[in-house]
Amino acid sequence: MTTTTRSADRNRDEGDNRQEDSDDGYEIDTDPGRLDVGLVHHWLSTDAFWALGRSRDTVERSIGGSLNFGVYGPDGGQVAYARVVTDRATFAWLCDVYVAPAHRGRGLGARLATAVRDHLAPYELKRTMLATLDAHELYARVGFVPVPDPERLMILSSER
């Protein structure tokens, strides 16, 4: 897998491209112009339990306000997605991690989470969080741990 980070991440130094070579033909890229937004919307709104029914407008706005990671197969087509909401100084939230069913079981989820972790490392963020229902083991392999004091966390949610 090749991991490419592009200068489209407007707050990173120009020319900061990191490459991770692998012979399986998959590539991770942070270029938002390369994303297949229609496909990402389809995945999230029809197959991701946390985003079922999410509108195309909401997906487009979320992409516009996030650092995006696309995974592309050997044929160049998009096969996975993740986004990070961050201030690039203190905090990040990893969300909307999705791997297309035909590409699951190849370690792409872990590789995607690793690429996110490595991309965020230079920012020296105090905290990167995520929520998961069933992928705790996958994220633990990348370094995520349970929240040490969940009693300190609160949310303001539109879901009541």
Secondary-structure topology with pairs:
Layout: E1 2-4, E2 27-29, H1 37-47, H2 56-64, E3 67-72, E4 78-86, E5 91-99, H3 108-120, E6 127-130, H4 136-142
Parallel strand pairs: 1-2, 5-6
Antiparallel strand pairs: 2-3, 3-4, 4-5
Helix pairs in contact: 1-2, 3-4
Description:
There is one protein chain. The protein has helices at 37-47, 56-64, 108-120, 136-142, and strands at 2-4, 27-29, 67-72, 78-86, 91-99, 127-130. The chain has 160 residues and is an alpha/beta fold. A 6-stranded mixed beta sheet has the order 1-2-3-4-5-6. A hairpin with a 4-residue loop joins strand 4 and strand 5. Helix 1 crosses helix 2 (56-64).
- Radius of gyration, CA atoms, in whole angstroms: 15 Å
Q: What is the percent of helical residues?
A: 25-40%
Sheet/helix structural class: alpha/beta
Q: Widest sheet: strand order?
A: 1-2-3-4-5-6
Distance separating the two termini:
41 Å
> What is the mean predicted local confidence, pLDDT?
89
Q: How many helices in DSSP terms?
A: 4
Residue runs with pLDDT of under 50 for 5 or more positions: 5-21
Run of helices and strands = EEHHEEEHEH
Number of strands: 6
How large a portion of the residues is in β-strands, by DSSP E?
A: 15-25%
Taking the sheet with the most strands, its summary is:
6 strands, mixed
Shape: globular
Top keywords for this entry?
160 residues, alpha/beta, 4 helices, 25% helix, globular
